Structure to design on (246 residues):
């Protein structure tokens, strides 16, 4: 890509401004000063230094968030705070405005968590990956940690594992459950119906009092990520996630 275009893509300036910055010697690419706007650089490896700040280009970005309760997963809402408000705040804290040349506004949550649910949320601008992850045909397993109001009897766990009626056309598909204490367990499901986990537990006369998503496919919530925090996925995490999808 031409260096002047890359500077535009990174929101460093308009094409005209980019040319001016280059000609006045203010741009270093991988440690080398570049002054000609028409010079080509590899946008995938270029590290641009401008006014003491490093910029890297990414076509797609992938972030995990440890969602706290109290935020909704919609892109916009008049009365509640959305996960995107939180994301924009955290992104600005970490990177200023547009380190990767992607305005925070282009990023959306791939999947939902209820307002009172917590845990792993994937945020990306990669529509194809989000679409594949959410496709019911792909049966991507998602694991949740659940606490309930009453005791989890063996009989109830068995019913949940084998499939329960949540008012849809068919009972839920087989789930995997691991009991942790009398009133907490993990559950792994391969569907994503609206309020699915809560409705499944309701079907066996239990109320979910706490719900936290721990994983989506191969992607696990980073135990070191504070509630409300975001971090970029590693290359390995992205490639493992994609392997199962395409
Ligand atoms: N199932 C639910 O009921 N709620 C969530 O937030 C996620 C899965």
């Amino acid at each position: 890509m031409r260096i002047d275009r890359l500077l535009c893509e990174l929101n460093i300036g308009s094409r005209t401004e980019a040319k001016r910055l280059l000609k006045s010697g203010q741009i270093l690419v991988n440690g080398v000063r570049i002054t000609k706007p028409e010079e080509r650089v590899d946008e995938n490896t270029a590290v641009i230094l401008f006014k003491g700040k490093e910029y890297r280009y990414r076509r797609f970005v992938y972030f995990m968030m440890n969602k706290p309760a109290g935020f909704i997963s919609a892109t916009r809402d008049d009365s509640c705070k959305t996960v995107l408000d939180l994301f924009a705040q955290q992104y600005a804290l970490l990177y200023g405005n547009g380190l990767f040349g992607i305005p925070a506004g282009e990023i959306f949550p791939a999947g939902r968590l209820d307002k009172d649910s917590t845990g792993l949320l994937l945020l990306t601008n990669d529509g194809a990956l989000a679409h594949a992850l959410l496709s019911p045909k792909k049966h991507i397993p998602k694991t949740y940690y659940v606490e309930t109001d009453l005791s989890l009897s063996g009989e109830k766990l068995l019913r949940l594992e084998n499939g329960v009626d949540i008012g849809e056309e068919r009972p839920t598909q087989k789930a995997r459950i691991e009991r942790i204490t009398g009133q907490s367990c993990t559950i792994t499901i391969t569907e994503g119906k609206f309020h699915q986990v809560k409705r499944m537990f309701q079907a066996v006369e239990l109320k979910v009092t706490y719900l936290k998503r721990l994983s989506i496919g191969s992607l696990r919530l980073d135990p070191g990520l504070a509630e409300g925090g975001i971090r970029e996925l590693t290359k390995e995490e992205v490639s493992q996630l994609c392997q199962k999808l395409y």
